[in-house]
Amino acid sequence: MNFGNEYLKVVLDRFKSVKDLGDKTINQLSEDDIHWHLNEASNSVAVIANHLGGNMVSRWSDFLVSDGEKSYRNRDQEFEDDTSSKQEMIAVWEKGWNTLFATLNSLEDQDLLKSVYIRGESHTVLEAIERQMAHYAYHIGQIVYIGKQIKGENWESLSIPKGKSKEYLQQKLKKPRS
Questions:
Q1: Which of 34, 90, 144, 167 is paired with 26 by a 20 to 30 Å CA distance?
Q2: DSSP letter at 69?
């Protein structure tokens, strides 16, 4: 087994899993819900999704050959809630994830120790991947938390529902080990 290729496979699956949490939350939210924010210091789901999309396109476009902070990116604008519709928000979201997945799928074992730059700071590809995984998981957690607050009793759990841990474990243990 080649460690680098196995790592790339695992991290691709982890990014897909994190995206899935965001997708399942966004699917539960209405046009109005995506713009809800607690106060002026907090972000809406639309703002977070827009920020993630902008970050992903910037970081993962020309990943091995240019700085991850592209000159065309306007990070500050990503934090303005000017998204006109849920459909527009999802388009920005999907463009970002598609850019990330295309780049990850193009990487090979020997790329992991190459240097890439983010805002002029050198990182190995491995470090850059881990940096972005932490960043995206942080923001997806915010999206899920906001979704749960908005939906309240109507929230459809994305994991093991409260009070169902024993049932879940029993179902898992009944399945043959892979």
A1: 167
A2: S
57 three-state secondary structure: helix
> How confident is residue 101, by pLDDT bands cut at 50, 70 and 90?
very high
Tokens of 114: 């190459």
Q: Give the chain's length.
A: 178
Q: How many CB atoms lie within 10 A of CB 159?
A: 9
Work out the average pLDDT over 163-173. Answer: 85
Q: Is 103 exposed, middle or buried (0-12, 13-18, 19+ CB in 10 A)?
A: middle
CATH 2.30.110.10 holds for 3-174: no
Among candidate residues 126, 159, 149, the one with its CA nearest the CA of residue 4: 126
Residue extents of the structural domains in the chain: 3-174
Return the residue matching tokens 């972005």.
Answer: 132
Token pair belonging to 98 = 């598609």
Asked if residue 99 lies in contact with residue 38, where contact means CB atoms within 8 angstroms, the answer is no
- CA-wise closest residue to 158 among 12, 20, 55, 10: 20
pLDDT digits (tens, 9 = 90+) for 117-152: 999 999 999 999 999 999 999 999 999 999 999 999
